[in-house]
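Regression check, D-glutamic acid case 263:
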Amino acid sequence: MSKAPIGIFDSGVGGTSILKEVHQLLPNENIIFLADSVNAPYGEKSKKEIIQLSDKNTKYLIQQQCKLIIVACNTATTNAIDFLRASYQIPFIGIEPAIKPAALQTQSKVVGVLATRGTITSELFSKTSSLFASNIKVIEQVGDGLVPLIEQNKIYTPEMSELLLKYITPMILANIDYLVLGCTHYPYLVPLLKELLPDHVKIIDSGEAVAKQTKKILQQENLLNSERVIHPEMQFYTNLNKALLQQFVSDIITPFKVSFLNF
Ligand code: DGL
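Current build output:
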Protein backbone atom coordinates (compact mmCIF):
# COMPACT_ATOMS: atom_id res chain seq x y z
CA MET A 1 0.00 0.00 0.00
CA SER A 2 2.87 2.43 0.69
CA LYS A 3 3.73 2.32 -3.03
CA ALA A 4 0.20 3.35 -3.97
CA PRO A 5 -0.07 6.91 -5.28
CA ILE A 6 -1.10 10.04 -3.42
CA GLY A 7 -4.15 11.58 -5.12
CA ILE A 8 -4.34 15.35 -5.50
CA PHE A 9 -7.23 17.32 -6.96
CA ASP A 10 -8.08 20.94 -7.62
CA SER A 11 -10.56 22.89 -9.69
CA GLY A 12 -7.71 23.44 -12.15
CA VAL A 13 -3.99 24.09 -12.49
CA GLY A 14 -3.65 25.92 -9.14
CA GLY A 15 -3.21 22.67 -7.25
CA THR A 16 0.20 22.31 -8.88
CA SER A 17 1.44 24.88 -6.33
CA ILE A 18 0.67 22.24 -3.68
CA LEU A 19 2.10 19.42 -5.77
CA LYS A 20 5.38 21.35 -5.86
CA GLU A 21 5.64 21.43 -2.05
CA VAL A 22 4.54 17.81 -1.66
CA HIS A 23 7.03 16.55 -4.25
CA GLN A 24 9.84 18.56 -2.66
CA LEU A 25 9.22 17.09 0.79
CA LEU A 26 8.22 13.59 -0.35
CA PRO A 27 10.26 12.89 -3.50
CA ASN A 28 9.66 9.11 -3.40
CA GLU A 29 5.90 9.34 -3.65
CA ASN A 30 3.95 8.42 -6.78
CA ILE A 31 1.23 10.98 -7.50
CA ILE A 32 -1.99 11.19 -9.51
CA PHE A 33 -3.16 14.75 -10.06
CA LEU A 34 -6.62 15.80 -11.30
CA ALA A 35 -7.27 19.29 -12.68
CA ASP A 36 -11.03 19.72 -12.99
CA SER A 37 -10.59 22.81 -15.20
CA VAL A 38 -13.90 22.27 -17.03
CA ASN A 39 -15.65 23.15 -13.78
CA ALA A 40 -13.40 26.04 -12.68
CA PRO A 41 -13.96 28.30 -10.91
CA TYR A 42 -15.34 26.32 -7.95
CA GLY A 43 -15.35 29.55 -5.95
CA GLU A 44 -18.49 30.83 -7.66
CA LYS A 45 -20.48 27.62 -7.13
CA SER A 46 -22.89 26.63 -4.36
CA LYS A 47 -21.76 24.44 -1.46
CA LYS A 48 -23.87 21.63 -2.87
CA GLU A 49 -22.18 21.82 -6.27
CA ILE A 50 -18.72 22.01 -4.69
CA ILE A 51 -19.50 18.87 -2.67
CA GLN A 52 -20.71 17.04 -5.80
CA LEU A 53 -17.58 17.96 -7.77
CA SER A 54 -15.25 17.07 -4.89
CA ASP A 55 -17.03 13.74 -4.53
CA LYS A 56 -16.65 13.00 -8.25
CA ASN A 57 -12.89 13.75 -8.11
CA THR A 58 -12.48 11.66 -4.98
CA LYS A 59 -14.29 8.66 -6.47
CA TYR A 60 -11.93 8.67 -9.44
CA LEU A 61 -8.81 8.89 -7.25
CA ILE A 62 -10.05 6.07 -5.02
CA GLN A 63 -10.71 3.92 -8.12
CA GLN A 64 -7.04 4.49 -8.99
CA GLN A 65 -6.10 2.95 -5.61
CA CYS A 66 -4.79 6.19 -4.06
CA LYS A 67 -3.66 5.76 -0.44
CA LEU A 68 -4.38 9.36 0.63
CA ILE A 69 -6.08 12.34 -1.00
CA ILE A 70 -4.94 15.94 -0.87
CA VAL A 71 -7.77 18.38 -1.51
CA ALA A 72 -5.47 21.00 -3.07
CA CYS A 73 -8.20 23.62 -3.18
CA ASN A 74 -9.25 25.94 -0.35
CA THR A 75 -12.75 26.22 -1.78
CA ALA A 76 -13.26 22.45 -1.91
CA THR A 77 -11.70 21.99 1.53
CA THR A 78 -13.76 24.64 3.29
CA ASN A 79 -17.00 23.42 1.70
CA ALA A 80 -16.61 19.69 1.23
CA ILE A 81 -13.95 18.11 3.44
CA ASP A 82 -16.38 17.21 6.23
CA PHE A 83 -18.55 15.42 3.69
CA LEU A 84 -15.55 13.59 2.18
CA ARG A 85 -14.21 12.49 5.56
CA ALA A 86 -17.64 11.23 6.57
CA SER A 87 -18.08 9.36 3.27
CA TYR A 88 -14.72 7.63 2.75
CA GLN A 89 -12.22 5.72 4.93
CA ILE A 90 -9.11 7.05 3.18
CA PRO A 91 -7.17 9.91 4.88
CA PHE A 92 -7.80 13.40 3.47
CA ILE A 93 -5.48 16.41 3.77
CA GLY A 94 -7.15 19.77 3.22
CA ILE A 95 -5.94 23.32 2.77
CA GLU A 96 -7.23 26.45 4.46
CA PRO A 97 -6.05 30.08 4.36
CA ALA A 98 -3.02 30.55 6.67
CA ILE A 99 -4.73 33.00 9.02
CA LYS A 100 -3.14 31.54 12.14
CA PRO A 101 0.55 32.24 11.31
CA ALA A 102 -0.36 35.67 9.95
CA ALA A 103 -2.31 36.54 13.12
CA LEU A 104 0.58 35.37 15.30
CA GLN A 105 3.23 37.37 13.46
CA THR A 106 1.54 40.60 12.42
CA GLN A 107 2.99 43.77 13.91
CA SER A 108 0.47 46.19 12.46
CA LYS A 109 -2.40 43.96 13.69
CA VAL A 110 -4.00 44.17 10.25
CA VAL A 111 -3.91 41.19 7.91
CA GLY A 112 -5.31 40.79 4.39
CA VAL A 113 -6.89 37.58 3.08
CA LEU A 114 -7.43 37.06 -0.62
CA ALA A 115 -9.56 34.01 -1.38
CA THR A 116 -12.49 32.84 -3.50
CA ARG A 117 -16.07 33.70 -2.66
CA GLY A 118 -16.70 30.05 -1.80
CA THR A 119 -13.90 30.06 0.77
CA ILE A 120 -14.63 33.44 2.35
CA THR A 121 -18.35 32.70 2.78
CA SER A 122 -17.75 29.19 4.17
CA GLU A 123 -18.52 28.25 7.77
CA LEU A 124 -15.09 26.67 8.21
CA PHE A 125 -13.31 29.88 7.18
CA SER A 126 -15.32 32.05 9.56
CA LYS A 127 -14.71 29.54 12.36
CA THR A 128 -10.94 29.55 11.76
CA SER A 129 -10.91 33.30 11.39
CA SER A 130 -12.73 33.94 14.67
CA LEU A 131 -10.60 31.34 16.47
CA PHE A 132 -7.20 32.75 15.52
CA ALA A 133 -7.80 36.33 14.49
CA SER A 134 -10.15 37.71 17.12
CA ASN A 135 -7.67 40.33 18.36
CA ILE A 136 -6.55 41.62 14.95
CA LYS A 137 -8.28 43.21 11.98
CA VAL A 138 -8.77 40.92 8.97
CA ILE A 139 -9.48 42.52 5.61
CA GLU A 140 -11.22 39.83 3.58
CA GLN A 141 -11.24 40.20 -0.18
CA VAL A 142 -12.98 37.94 -2.68
CA GLY A 143 -10.73 37.40 -5.70
CA ASP A 144 -13.47 37.26 -8.35
CA GLY A 145 -12.03 36.79 -11.82
CA LEU A 146 -8.50 35.76 -10.80
CA VAL A 147 -8.90 31.98 -11.18
CA PRO A 148 -10.55 32.26 -14.65
CA LEU A 149 -7.66 34.45 -15.86
CA ILE A 150 -5.07 31.97 -14.56
CA GLU A 151 -6.97 29.10 -16.20
CA GLN A 152 -6.81 31.06 -19.48
CA ASN A 153 -3.05 31.51 -19.05
CA LYS A 154 -3.49 35.28 -18.69
CA ILE A 155 -1.27 35.90 -15.68
CA TYR A 156 1.02 38.60 -17.04
CA THR A 157 -1.70 40.77 -18.56
CA PRO A 158 -2.93 44.32 -17.86
CA GLU A 159 -6.33 42.84 -16.97
CA MET A 160 -4.79 40.76 -14.18
CA SER A 161 -2.70 43.65 -12.82
CA GLU A 162 -5.76 45.90 -12.74
CA LEU A 163 -7.83 43.34 -10.85
CA LEU A 164 -5.06 42.73 -8.32
CA LEU A 165 -4.54 46.43 -7.76
CA LYS A 166 -8.27 46.86 -7.14
CA TYR A 167 -8.26 44.03 -4.59
CA ILE A 168 -5.14 44.96 -2.64
CA THR A 169 -5.43 48.76 -2.58
CA PRO A 170 -7.93 48.78 0.34
CA MET A 171 -5.63 46.39 2.21
CA ILE A 172 -2.60 48.63 1.68
CA LEU A 173 -4.61 51.64 2.84
CA ALA A 174 -5.63 49.69 5.95
CA ASN A 175 -1.91 49.06 6.71
CA ILE A 176 -1.66 45.27 6.34
CA ASP A 177 1.75 43.72 6.92
CA TYR A 178 0.68 40.18 5.91
CA LEU A 179 -1.24 39.06 2.85
CA VAL A 180 -2.65 35.54 3.12
CA LEU A 181 -3.21 33.78 -0.21
CA GLY A 182 -6.26 31.62 0.40
CA CYS A 183 -6.44 29.92 -2.99
CA THR A 184 -3.97 27.46 -4.48
CA HIS A 185 -4.01 29.30 -7.81
CA TYR A 186 -2.76 32.53 -6.23
CA PRO A 187 0.90 31.59 -5.54
CA TYR A 188 1.32 32.03 -9.31
CA LEU A 189 0.45 35.71 -8.80
CA VAL A 190 3.25 36.36 -6.30
CA PRO A 191 5.63 38.07 -8.79
CA LEU A 192 2.84 40.50 -9.72
CA LEU A 193 1.76 41.02 -6.12
CA LYS A 194 5.33 41.79 -5.06
CA GLU A 195 5.42 44.59 -7.61
CA LEU A 196 2.16 46.04 -6.34
CA LEU A 197 2.61 45.68 -2.57
CA PRO A 198 4.87 47.80 -0.35
CA ASP A 199 8.17 45.97 0.37
CA HIS A 200 7.41 45.29 4.02
CA VAL A 201 4.22 43.29 3.31
CA LYS A 202 4.83 39.55 3.57
CA ILE A 203 2.89 37.13 1.40
CA ILE A 204 2.08 33.72 2.86
CA ASP A 205 0.26 30.59 1.76
CA SER A 206 -0.37 27.14 3.18
CA GLY A 207 1.51 24.97 0.66
CA GLU A 208 4.41 23.98 2.90
CA ALA A 209 2.09 23.25 5.83
CA VAL A 210 0.04 20.92 3.63
CA ALA A 211 3.17 19.00 2.58
CA LYS A 212 4.27 18.64 6.23
CA GLN A 213 0.82 17.47 7.29
CA THR A 214 0.79 14.95 4.43
CA LYS A 215 4.12 13.51 5.60
CA LYS A 216 2.90 13.33 9.19
CA ILE A 217 -0.28 11.46 8.28
CA LEU A 218 1.54 9.07 5.92
CA GLN A 219 3.98 8.25 8.74
CA GLN A 220 1.21 7.83 11.26
CA GLU A 221 -0.72 5.48 8.96
CA ASN A 222 2.40 3.56 7.90
CA LEU A 223 1.87 4.63 4.32
CA LEU A 224 5.10 6.50 3.62
CA ASN A 225 7.04 5.22 0.60
CA SER A 226 10.46 5.08 2.18
CA GLU A 227 12.07 3.24 -0.73
CA ARG A 228 14.40 5.52 -2.70
CA VAL A 229 12.78 6.20 -6.09
CA ILE A 230 14.67 8.01 -8.87
CA HIS A 231 11.65 8.76 -11.06
CA PRO A 232 8.37 8.40 -9.21
CA GLU A 233 5.26 7.86 -11.34
CA MET A 234 3.65 11.25 -11.92
CA GLN A 235 0.35 11.15 -13.74
CA PHE A 236 -1.63 14.26 -14.52
CA TYR A 237 -5.17 14.41 -15.83
CA THR A 238 -7.10 17.41 -17.06
CA ASN A 239 -10.57 17.56 -18.56
CA LEU A 240 -9.81 20.75 -20.50
CA ASN A 241 -6.42 22.06 -21.61
CA LYS A 242 -3.52 19.59 -21.70
CA ALA A 243 -0.98 22.17 -22.86
CA LEU A 244 -1.80 24.50 -19.96
CA LEU A 245 -1.37 21.81 -17.31
CA GLN A 246 1.84 20.68 -19.02
CA GLN A 247 3.17 24.22 -18.79
CA PHE A 248 2.44 24.50 -15.04
CA VAL A 249 3.96 21.10 -14.23
CA SER A 250 7.08 21.40 -16.37
CA ASP A 251 8.59 23.91 -13.94
CA ILE A 252 8.14 21.49 -11.05
CA ILE A 253 9.08 17.95 -12.03
CA THR A 254 10.41 15.79 -14.76
CA PRO A 255 9.54 13.33 -16.19
CA PHE A 256 5.75 13.39 -15.98
CA LYS A 257 2.77 12.44 -18.11
CA VAL A 258 -0.24 14.66 -18.80
CA SER A 259 -3.34 13.08 -20.32
CA PHE A 260 -6.75 14.35 -21.30
CA LEU A 261 -9.50 12.57 -19.38
CA ASN A 262 -13.22 13.17 -19.43
CA PHE A 263 -13.79 12.81 -15.69
N1 DGL B 1 -7.57 26.51 -6.31
C1 DGL B 1 -8.89 26.75 -5.81
C2 DGL B 1 -8.82 27.20 -4.35
O1 DGL B 1 -7.82 27.01 -3.70
C3 DGL B 1 -9.60 27.70 -6.73
C4 DGL B 1 -11.07 27.66 -6.57
C5 DGL B 1 -11.84 28.05 -7.78
O2 DGL B 1 -11.83 27.29 -8.75
O3 DGL B 1 -12.50 29.09 -7.72
O4 DGL B 1 -9.77 27.71 -3.79
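Comparison notes: Residues 10-12, 14, 40-43, 73-75, 116, 119, 147, 183-185 surround D-glutamic acid (CB under 6 Å). The first helix runs from residue 16 to 25. No diff flagged against the previous build.
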